[in-house]
Amino acid sequence: MATTLTGTSIIGSSRGSKTAETFRGFDPTTGNEIEPAFHSAAFEEVDAAASLAEEARLEYGNLVCKERAKFLRAIADNVEALGDALIERASLETSLPNARFVGERARTCGQLRIFADLLDEGSWVDARIDHAIPDREPIPKPDVRSMLRPIGPAAVFCASNFPLAYSVAGGDTASALAAGCPVIVNAHTAHPGTAELVGLAVSKAVKECEMPEGIFSLLFSSGYEIGQALVRHPAIKAVGFTGSRKGGRALMDIAAARPEPIPVYAEMSSVNPTFILPNAMKERGDAIVAGLHASVTGGVGQFCTKPGLVFVPGESDTFISNFRSQIAATNPAPLLTGGIQKTYNTANSHRAGEVTNTIANEETNLHGFSVNPSVFETTAIEFLNTPDLNEEIFGPTTLLIRSNHHEELLKIALSLEGQLTASVHGTEDDLREYADLIKILETKVGRLILNGFSTGVEVCPSMVHGGPYPATSDGRSTAVGTRAIRRFSRFVCYQNFPQNALPEELRDDNALNIWRIVDGEFKR
Ligand code: NAP
Asked: Cα of 245 to ligand 1 centre, how many Å?
């Protein structure tokens, strides 16, 4: 039976009140509002959700990992059980095709299950044991053991561009719940119906698995105040965010100004520089044009990993002319929100005034939040003299930069801000000649890609979806892959504890059979 949306927040096992302040989702194709109305949470409801999370913290954080794994799998099952209703609502609220959400749902549920597997295996806690040496001279050595423990209740902000995989039951929620942290989600205004459906699936799993009710709440709000109140709440101990640099920075500043500052894991802005080196351009320029076009326009250019800067050799006329023909032949398409559309159009106009060569579609009769794809072109010297050109433009556009000299490319690479990714297209000869470029890029990014494109992030244990500021607020972390769990955990050390008072992971018998470092040796 289809779920009826009520438009109210979820506060533990209860529903929020029907406050007078409401908002609706939009159909980006038409720009029209979609029913039902969603009620902004009241400040008291932020407090209620945070207090429930605080109450649930100890019980949930001390559950054995296998219980939390069962819970994550139940969430995945319940999200899948939402069936077509979820796919259709996500598609309606974003104007992205159903097929995109079939894939995104698989990724979302896959992420939940990868974390469940991680918990079942158990070694993620990074257990270390140093046995006591009572007769050590000149002073005895104590028994010292440590492992990762949950950081405490987390606030998670949904991403506009991943209504499933980086929203209510997305990567941040999955990794925080896996770590043993209660989660309070701040829904994104762009896809409230999708958020409510997934929120109900999580709540159902809470009940089915007899978890403490406070481990999950979902707050709707039309403005920023509720999300900010959540970050300020003393019960909240960490924040996960995906969105704009402005939004992420605002939350970082609020978190740092609290009497008790807390970590914010914000994934913000990245232009994902892409370098096409001379021999690769000569050998396979045509194939690179096709791949680049797909990467710039996929998801209407609304991926945080979209290549926003593309460096090509000076003599790339054919490549540029082919790429520009492909962009000119690409239909306008709707962006996710009216705000993103406005920002895109303003940034495009601004850029057109900054660079000497502009190629943009000029279709004028656009509906809803639709925009024309565009491509800009400039020289390395102009790029180096215009810092604004480093700014992310979210949407189907990119900037091609012609560079004639190796030294120029190195100078550009050194000037770049922190990025999620950098891609290099090169032959073996190119790689030998530009080894210094790659060494510089390594200092700037979370992921280096060779002969491929930055969009498309594999969810696997070794993935790094992070990067130095402003790509993220903490370049030591990743938002994708199993290491994301570390953002919501912290090391705790137990000194001179008897066996039965230690967490199971740290006891000598290693009944869980996990990998540990014992007296300096890595073993099971
Ligand atoms: P956003 O404006 O930063 O919003 C993200 C979420 O945070 C929304 O729920 C928003 O609330 C909330 N928020 C924003 N600023 C806030 C503040 N000062 N205090 C409290 N809450 C705040 O991002 P967006 O709407 O998703 O997209 C806009 C821009 O973000 C894009 O143009 C793009 O540049 C960037 N973006 C980057 C990535 C990435 O991964 N790098 C991904 C998505 C978007 P509301 O729901 O009320 O707006």
From this structure: 8
